[in-house]
Amino acid sequence: MANKEQTDTDRMEKIVSLCKSKGFIFQSGELYGGLNGCWDYGPLGTELKRNVKEFWWRKNVLEREDIVGMDGSILTHHAVLTASGHVGGFSDPMVDCKVCKKRYRADQLEDIPSCEKKAQLPKGEDKSCELTEPKEFNLMFQTKMGASADDNDPNAIAYLRPETAQTIFVQYKNVLDSTRLKLPFGIAQIGKAFRNEINPRNYTFRSREFEQMEIEYFCRPEDGLRLTDEWLEMRLDFYTQIGVPREKLHVLDIPDGERAHYSQKTYDIEYDFPFGQQELEGVAYRGAYDIGKHQEHSGKNLEYFDAETKERFIPHVVEPSAGCDRTILAVLCEAYDVEDLTKEGGKKDERTVMRFKPCVAPIKAAILPLLKNKPELVEKAKEVKNLLQPHMNIFYDETAAIGRRYRRQDEVGTPFCIAIDFETLGEKGPNGEDFTDTVTVRHRDSMEQERVAISELLPWLLARIV
Ligand code: ATP
Questions:
Q1: Is the separation of the CB atoms in 139 and 160 below 8 Å?
Q2: Residues enclosing ligand 1, CB less than 6 A?
Q3: How far is the CA of 442 from the centre of ligand 1 (A)?
Q4: What are all long-range contacts of 432-441, with beta carbons under 8 Å and residues at least 24 apart?
Q5: How far apart are CA 436 and CA 430, in angstroms?
Q6: Is the peptide bond before 184 cis (omega within 30 degrees of 0)?
Q7: I need a surface site. Which of 124, 129, 309, 381 has the fewest CB within 10 A?
Q8: How far apart are CA 181 and CA 177, in angstroms?
Q9: Phi, psi for 265 (deg, rounded to 5)
Q10: pLDDT in tens, 126-169
Q11: Residue 76 CA: distances (Å) to CA of 91, 141, 162, 298, 324
Q12: Are 76 and 160 in contact (CB under 8 A)?
């Protein structure tokens, strides 16, 4: 299959443009010039995101006995984030240009950038930014709670959570007491997190508002390292299942000195985005650090009691922490393809096709009556629509020629198109076959067609969209 893209930047621009024109992703506040670092998911993007989140939830919560879910509040008590170290230290080094006043993240600058104000200077003059010394910039969004909050009352301060993890740590004891789980066990959460990134960039990759899919997996200290390796493998498998192939993923074993001081092992899973190899997920062995800190700061006993061995101890934690929006972006980048097709008679043609895995595809099947002005075809097509609609997201389309309708579905990644034609109504096939009450199913990737009985259609599709 030939990709027509010349460069990666070119490919990224085409993906961004398709995402807007087909309703996957829009810039937040676009009407008013856009809110930097914030994105809205359109109709198809919303379905794609729901499918990815549901797949993650099914694999990590519903299909396991040792993991339960939670949904914590976004507004977070200042004491939680003080104990976790975020209030004191969740920052990135920032530098400013003294001339054009642009801000940069110091650790992401490869070269000194060119100064916007100095652009007009004559040839030969130094046009680079004049940067200040780096200073730490806290990434958390702070807010005040309560109508009568005193401006100087530290207890009125709350934060939009910078990660979902801390809400899990501070509820771990309540979950344990209410579920009677035994080690090892996990708590999973999908939800919004907020970071006031200095330089949001690369489309949705680095946003100020984003979603995380996190698991805190609690275990005995002696099992931590082994479980970290096991989680890494499970997480790599997950990406393959949603259409991000293993060869495009890279595992970085973060060396001593670059990991957080409490972590004995951290893996970053990176993906070959069109703008470079970048982090999708971190799998970190966090030891007893988080629960230990919350025990220390709250003064409450957060130990685990092992009824068999009669031991009391702070459980250790392995944390697979994935970015939902980065996963969606990887899925979109991986699905996008422009295929060369040569029409009958040698005429060149191409089609854009989003090759989503059926389990994440926003629309699972399109129902297409061959002609819209034949009431019997339309009636039958609506019967098929009513049959499938309670079970999956389908799309009904009776406008334009069938070939064009197929192409429109290719562009949004619908894996199956179901055509209701005259054979469905009883007309004989080309070799005299009886195709009454069957439909033509066209496969998106191969463009091959086959006939499936309407009575078999629902189980046929359900088996192929999981
Ligand atoms: P980075 O180094 O890219 O800033 P991080 O190492 O700080 O990321 P973590 O704190 O480990 O990220 O967060 C876990 C996951 O949350 C990341 O792997 C990523 O997928 C996602 N994530 C973090 N920051 C952002 C962001 N600004 N926009 C979108 N997703 C993010």
A1: no
A2: 163, 195, 197, 206-207, 210, 212, 279-282, 321-323, 325-326
A3: 39
A4: 439/384, 441/416, 441/417
A5: 13
A6: yes
A7: 124
A8: 8
A9: -155, 130
A10: 999 999 999 999 999 999 988 766 777 888 899 999 999 999 99
A11: 18, 11, 9, 15, 21
A12: yes
Instruction: Indicate the length of the chain as a whole number.
Output: 466
Report the predicted TM-score, pTM, of the whole model to 2 decimal places.
0.93
Q: Which residue has the tokens 């409450």?
A: 300
| Ligand 1: nearest atom to the Cα of 207 | 28
Residue-wise pLDDT tens digits, 92-130: 899 999 999 888 889 888 889 999 898 888 888 899 999
Express each pLDDT in 21-47 by its tens digit. Answer: 999 999 999 999 999 999 999 999 999
CA of residue 38 to ligand 1 center, whole Å: 15
What token pair was written down for 298? 């709250």
Phi, psi dihedral angles at 340 (to 5 degrees): -80, 130
**Both ends of the chain: CA-CA distance in Å?**
25
Tell me which residue has tokens 């989680």: 231
Instruction: Report the amino acid identity of residue 388.
Output: L
Joined tokens for residue 412 = 């949004």
Distance set, CA 206 to CA 61, 273, 304, 335 (Å): 27, 13, 37, 20
- The amino acid sitting at 34 is G
Give, to the nearest 10 degrees, the angle between helix 454-464 and helix 375-388: 40
